[in-house]
């Protein structure tokens, strides 16, 4: 398994605030916009989830497609959901490339301050 936005097993990732928003193409280079991750649900429907801070706190299986293995404090995301798009960009079917995409989109998000909940 690997956790969102890391390349080695030494870095833990926690969940931050999440809110559901209608899909809109956001500029991934502007961290003020947050990050929209599109998930495929077990019933084959899709759901966009908006993350405005990091760490995300989603743990993914160490395989593609990026499937949520564990969730910490995020009521809007569930284990078994498959991440399909980041800011409308399709996630690669190559694990290394998918991880790079995820890191690229999350790295500039603001860090949640300890004790804050959004």
UniProtKB/TrEMBL annotation:
Domain of life: Eukaryota
Protein name: PDZ domain-containing protein
Species: Cladocopium goreaui
Lineage of source species: Eukaryota, Sar, Alveolata, Dinophyceae, Suessiales
